[in-house]
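Work Package 3 (structural annotation) set out to generate three-dimensional models for the target panel prioritized at the project kickoff. During this period the team completed the workflow that converts sequence records into discrete structure tokens, so that structures can be stored uniformly alongside our sequence database. As a representative example, we reproduce one entry of 312 residues exactly as it appears in the project archive.
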Amino acid sequence: MQIFSFFVFGPLQEIGNIILSYREAEASLQNFDTLMSKQPEPHPANPKHLGDVGELRFQNVGFQHRTAHQRAIEDINFKVEKGETIAFVGPSGSGKTTLMKLLVGLYRPQEGKILYNGIDENSIYFDDLRNQIGFVTQDTQLFSGTIRENLLFVNPSATEEDLLDALNKAACQRLLSRADKGLETMLGEGGLKLSGGEKQRISIARALLRKPKVLIFDEATSSLDSITEEEITSTIRQVSSLRNQITILIAHRLSTIMHADRIYVLEKGLIIETGTHEELLADSGLYYAMWRQQIGERKSDQKVTPAQVKLN
């Protein structure tokens, strides 16, 4: 009887696996079809020359997602020039991610204008803009290859001197000193052989290699432990202090943006507070409340009992 059940249920199980694979392939094909049917990005009929980005301005910008019942951001106004560092902070759902996507042209504002060098974004080629943007996210994308190959991915014409300069600015000296073959050291798929902090430094070096006019850090330290976060924050401060570009920080952890020239506090898509770190603490508003909460969390994380010390 067991032999007969094997011959009956074995093929049935295989049929189930085939049906599952078919459903997965069907879903993938539908996604592919949706992607291929999207309209190409519109280009202006008479584009204006952008040049090097030296000024960025949002004028009464508003945006609402199709399936949302309220605006993701509304009436956003700010101006930043070359050499300045600004930051956007706020609780989850305050509009930080939407703002970032508007900055890099993934979304277009439904209200208001975004101006680069005083030129409306709808009057320029977005490729000219994107070529001037350096972008560092919380999830670093590295592929199986050498350090050199992972860096040259964004700027194939970069020289050896350019590579070393970018790595130096990103504080990668320790990483290079441990690398057996220098720039030819293999990283492994997804940066398998690197720690979280080292991955972020490679990501920062890769962004700097583009010699960007606009440098964006989007939650660049959110997935790191507190010690590594402090090291990466120090690297970001050093990069910002060079004042070679517009630097925009988007963060939830306030310790990473204290040095910014101006901090914009978002809540429910609106800018409710603006100022330096010290000014916002003095105002005792939402920023002050977030600061107290995060400082309290950090202190509790740093408390270690004598027993834990002995175990370590």
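Residues 64 and 71 are 4 Å apart (CA to CA).
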